[in-house]
Design brief:
Length: about 475
């Protein structure tokens, strides 16, 4: 979820892996089966997971309002302190809230899990994107890829630390001195209609127009602030809009470093490439609980407010979390020092429980119903009570998988069991507002029409006719658009 380095880098030096998305490592990752692969997933009670995935508006509203109030208060203090030394700490706080804490809001609203109401997620996502110089559509698709192929070299566009680690590259970026101008220049090129090959690699062609217009809007706003500053011969407007992305970045990196740095590349197990760190309540507010980062990658449909509870459910299957930020940094710094001279060096003894054989590896956690075929190609899915109102049930019939949904007491819908975006089991997802949300990237489909209603889902699900006959649910498993 980082400013890593979305901008295409220079050709790899000798001995250095090619982290670009269009080079030899990209081909190698696909050949090795590391692209869009099945990842380790710990077992969890299906009902408990449904509880944890539930959405509300209240908690996120409180946290976003509190963040905005603090931001405005820090801005007022900074303005009043202009001309005195007090302006330095006041602007530092303003910058950390603007260019640092915005990252977690951007991230959670990008997943669509912060608020129950989709447009509020999108509104916060766009504002935070602007604050971070992140083009919204570009970064949305980049982050989908990050979740599909976490720290897979040649696939993940958000790898922050490339091996061998180079301190020279990190230090300027603590103030976005390298990434910031690169992101701005990329935005300008996109605004001019020139989309680079890396962006074309993960942004679908029919979304690239939107990307261009977003870049134009952001560039226009930033130019407006520059003109304001120049015309008033004052840097103050830029100190409030634009420059905080740079001088507030240390907080962003303070958190980002703890996520994956120094851990394994090219593994299909988030327990080996992602780190959970215990943090105090202030840091967890600023970071929206993303310190439970392994848990977030395992179950990205669980909203940030429930990550501590998810951690409690899963902790027996995960490596011990780092007890504090200091311990996390000790591990990161040790690993980066070794990887600086030996890029193949790995953190020893990650203490990952060896539970792949018994822990439901790559299996859906939801209930499986064994259905029986009845007369004339119709299939008995069971009693009308097989699924609760508001619930979903995975149904396997002769090797095919479906999801039976009951969005309200009297409505049943049957759809394909696998997401059309990435082959995730939809029965592990969430039924919400008449849609089923995929557990892998939070794409959504209308359960009655099968139509995709939230990216990255773009191809409709097959839907099947299901009716109540004598207290039983009977389905016609021919696709609804071909059934008689
Ligand atoms: Fe990506 Fe379902 S696998 S949205």
């Amino acid at each position: 979820m980082r400013d890593a380095l979305l901008t295409p880098g220079p050709a790899p030096a000798e001995g250095r892996r090619d982290y670009s998305l269009t080079g030899v490592e990209a081909e190698r990752a696909v050949r090795a089966g590391l692209a869009d692969a099945q990842w380790y997933r710990p077992p969890i009670d299906a009902e408990r997971l449904q509880d944890l995935m539930a959405r509300t508006n209240g908690r996120a509203a409180r946290d976003v309002v509190l963040w905005l109030v603090l931001l405005v208060a820090a801005g007022v203090l900074a303005f009043l302190a202009l001309g005195s030394w007090w302006a330095i700490p006041a602007f530092a706080i303003y910058g950390f809230l603007y260019g640092g804490a915005a990252d977690a809001r951007w991230h959670e609203c990008g997943h669509g899990t912060a608020f129950r109401t989709p447009w509020i997620n999108d509104a916060v996502y766009y504002v935070a994107s602007f604050m971070l110089f992140r083009e919204p559509t570009l970064w949305r698709w980049s982050h989908f890829r990050h979740h599909s192929d976490t720290i897979i070299v040649g696939r993940d566009p958000e790898i922050l630390f490339m091996r061998p680690f180079r301190l020279r590259a990190l230090i300027p970026n603590l103030l976005q001195l390298q990434n910031g101008p690169q992101m701005l220049w990329r935005m300008v090129r996109h605004a001019a209609g020139s989309i680079d090959t890396e962006a074309r690699d993960f942004v679908p062609p029919d979304e690239q127009r939107r990307l261009v217009w977003e870049a134009r809007a952001f560039v226009a706003i930033l130019l407006g602030v520059v003109v304001w500053s120049v015309s008033t011969r004052s840097i103050v407007p830029l100190l409030f809009i634009g420059l905080p992305t740079f001088y507030g970045a240390p907080l962003l990196y303070f958190f980002a470093v703890t996520q994956h740095a120094g851990l394994r590349e090219d593994v299909l197990d988030h327990r080996l490439n992602t780190r959970t760190v215990y943090m105090n309540p202030v840091l967890r507010f600023l970071y929206l609980n993303m310190n439970y980062h392994v848990e977030h990658h395992l179950f990205p449909s669980v909203p940030y407010r429930n990550l501590p509870a998810l951690h409690a459910e899963l902790k027996d299957h995960l490596p011990p979390p780092k007890p504090n930020v200091l311990a996390a940094y000790r591990e990161v710094i040790g690993a980066l020092r070794h990887q600086r001279v030996d890029p193949a060096w790995e953190v020893p003894d990650l203490q990952v429980p060896d539970d792949r054989a018994t822990a439901g590896y790559a299996k859906g956690a939801a209930t499986v119903a064994i259905a029986e075929t009845v007369a004339e190609g119709h299939t008995d899915l069971g009693s009308v009570d097989a699924v609760e109102p508001g619930g979903i049930l995975r149904v396997d019939v002769h090797g095919a998988t479906y999801v039976l949904c009951r969005p309200s007491a009297d409505v049943y819908a049957l759809v394909d069991g696998f997401c059309t975006h990435g082959q995730a089991h939809l029965a592990d997802g969430l039924l919400i507002d008449g849609c089923i949300e995929c557990p892998k990237h939070n794409g959504r489909f209308d359960v009655v029409t099968g139509e995709p209603v939230r990216r990255p889902a773009r191809v409709p699900l097959g839907t099947y006719h299901v009716e109540v006959v004598g207290g039983r649910l009977v389905a016609d498993l021919r696709p609804a658009d071909t059934a008689g």
